[in-house]
Design goal:
about 210 residues
Length: about 210
């Protein structure tokens, strides 16, 4: 259930409107039967916020993240929950300057463009183990979606659309009696027709000067 403020904005915490605000109403079923759609509630109290745990490299939490993968070229997408997630974009470039010159001649690429995706999850199926052992690859989409912009329908968001990923490493050791944690490392691969390994799309209402 999405709770709304008096101005129609979604109510959340940390100004993102995606970490849910849970309200517990006292009483029994008879008392709850008196509530109806469209009721207004006022809570004239102030409470402290917990300390958020952010995903590596940016300010959004796991409540903002959605993951989907496909092993059939994008015809079918499977929802994936992760414990941790890391995206690394290696883009080694260097400025070409003459001796004693303050002015660059060009920007050169010194090395390969490398896009990496890593995550951990509870081992509840053998989907990624099967991909790893058969040397398969997959498509992947990583969404980070925040608050509604200007009342919607768009949200502040970042989308990483991975054209093709190959498995680098996979570990799932059984250390104790607890649930097994699977650690997966993947590398973005360009397409045969020159497609980039990953495409990044931003939706925001902020103005930036580059």
């Amino acid at each position: 259930v999405h709770t709304l403020a008096h101005d129609g904005a979604e109510i959340g915490i940390w100004d993102e409107n995606k970490d849910p605000l849970d309200l517990c109403f006292p009483g029994d079923a008879v008392a709850h039967a008196l509530t109806a759609v469209g009721d207004y509630w006022y809570f004239p109290v102030v409470w402290g916020l917990p300390t958020p745990t952010y995903l590596a490299g940016q300010r959004m939490t796991s409540a903002h993240q959605d993951n989907y993968y496909s092993t059939d070229g994008g015809s079918t997408w499977v929802d994936l929950n992760t414990l941790t997630s890391t995206i690394t974009i290696g883009d080694p470039i260097a400025v070409d300057q003459g001796s004693g010159s303050r002015y660059p001649f060009a920007i050169d690429r010194n090395g390969q463009f490398v896009a990496l995706l890593g995550f951990t999850r509870k081992l509840r199926d053998l989907a990624f183990r099967n991909i790893y052992e058969t040397d398969g690859d997959l498509k992947f989409r990583t969404y980070f979606s925040g608050q509604l912009l200007a009342g919607g329908p768009n949200r502040e968001s970042i989308l990483f659309d991975w054209n093709r990923l190959e498995m680098v490493t996979l570990t799932d050791p059984a250390a104790n009696e607890n649930a097994i944690v699977e650690t997966v490392a993947l590398r973005g691969v360009g397409g045969d027709a020159g497609e980039a390994p990953v495409k990044v799309t931003f939706i925001t209402d902020q103005d930036y000067t580059v």
